[in-house]
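Lab meeting, action items carried over

1. Structure of the two-component assembly. Owner: GW. Status: complete.
Input record:
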Amino acid sequence: MRYELYYWTGIQGRGEYVRLALEDAGADYLDVARERGDDAIMAFLGGEEKGALPFAPPFLKAGRLVIAQTANILAYLGPRLGLVPEGEAAEIYAQQLQLTIADFVVEIHDTHHPIAASQYYSQQRTAARKRTEAFRKERLPKFLDYFEHVLERGNGRQALARHSYVDLSLFQLVSGLDYAFPSAMRRMQRRIPRLRALAERIADRPNIAAYLASPRRIAFNEDGIFRHYAELDPSR
Amino acid sequence: MRYELYYWTGIQGRGEYVRLALEDAGADYLDVARERGDDAIMAFLGGEEKGALPFAPPFLKAGRLVIAQTANILAYLGPRLGLVPEGEAAEIYAQQLQLTIADFVVEIHDTHHPIAASQYYSQQRTAARKRTEAFRKERLPKFLDYFEHVLERGNGRQALARHSYVDLSLFQLVSGLDYAFPSAMRRMQRRIPRLRALAERIADRPNIAAYLASPRRIAFNEDGIFRHYAELDPSR
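Predicted assembly:
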């Protein structure tokens, strides 16, 4: 089956978690908006297309199914791409972890947009500085400690009994945080040895390494979720 | 099976979406922290209990399974409690809608806590006023219009082909928004006839009516997600 991924062009955003799964598995997929433009997305959001009504991208077309919400897409793809261990308990736990990653991603986004996504960063810098300070001190360590604990409870190296879409998403999380908050992440370095080792192993997987080196991987930038603003990442 | 629900005492919070499903289905369940105190929750968060590691409540114990993340719990309970139409496509769409409700709930929470959940509302009132203004003007109409469209595309009265956990959650959403933003919701009244009718029908379901009239239903309050602060809901 050829999957169709619908996501905004120009940013990694939430589409990236799906891309990493498709790329790692060597799945056949079309990144629709990058081929045909963002109008292809708008037709679904406006209800002009059949099937499930998405609130926002990413969404995946798989045959006649339209599936939105990042974690929901991964729950669907997991067993089909061999990216989740077999069995209901593993699938449920993988999804729980993915949803916790999604919660973290919202908090990361809101560091630079605490007031409104519709306004520019420059319009909410004061609030962004306050929110990011609390994020660096409280939320970043809390989430990273949690995922480190998850790896410890998994098989010590991976979140679940074997490789899964959760590990791919943890790689993306660590990569994005390194880009956005290099100083804060340096200070966290010793607390997250398992996450660090996992991120390195994922980057070295042949299909992921090839993807990261290809033009299909969009670079991190200041339109995406992970943004680097020096004033939000003081050196101490 | 007797389900065990773990959620903080004193607020409806995200636990309420699970409670409404259990109550509507007449399921046998124990609301653990309300019987035994919050320590029962802490043991799971600290990793002292077996099974999946939750980042936060709510989580559900179902036999040996521990399931966290509200939408994930409902995905598990849906087929077991008869709260989702049969078939993979319906289950996936229900979950997509529930996750969009979850996204909306985060935005509702952050109206009064745009800077840090760890700080009091009084410490972030200036940012809260700005965030809530954008929420009332942009996000509230966008999400409510979307869910109204979902009902129109469902069977006209319900989100899916028949009653589901999504409808129960939409009831909770409308109830909470009526509590927190009565003025803004009055202005939205004519735009959401289907959501209004759905919320009334859900409130009249015998098990839900009995639950809402019981001491098991915690009242909305200013410790929860839906908070009423008059300054955040101007009359025009």
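2. GW to write a short summary for the group page. Key points so far: Strands of chain B lie at 3-6, 29-31, 59-62, 65-68. The two ends of chain B are 50 Å apart (CA to CA).
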